[in-house]
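quick one, 168 residues, struct below
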Amino acid sequence: MLAAPFDVMESGRMAMINDPTGAKVVIWEPRKHAGAGIMNELNSVCWTELATTDTAKATEFYWKLFEWKPQVKSMGPAGDYTEWSVAGAPQNLFAGMLQMTPEWGEMPSHWSVYLKVADPDAIAAAATKAGGKVIVGPFDAPGVGRLALLQDPAGATFYIIHLTLAGR
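---
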């Protein structure tokens, strides 16, 4: 537990925890503010992803905590990739997980957010003009889309992606 449950005015209640692999997680109990109201639209959140040092431990934790159902698929030489859905709705995938490899170095387990955009190259250029940085990309991920990792002027990182996956 990083921060015990506390009220956020009348909007809701939240707490901050570490999962067993060290990734920070904020949990939210809605009251007057339900949370994200727009998802999967241009310029909004379309995916979240856990990069972790131990996928088995993380899978067990998120199943026990939220009943997230894992769907593991092979990515060939890149290893396995887990997609999560809420139990009872396997068609509604909302997050992914990948195993960190030694090439990641000392980076801790962490969650990333992906924002859906029409043109990652244009957004990356605009981010630089606005005082941010392009950390990686833009690059093509075959079968997924074109993406980039950006950093805002305060240091927060996020991905932008133009999805080419069917149905997304």
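The chain has a mean pLDDT of 92.
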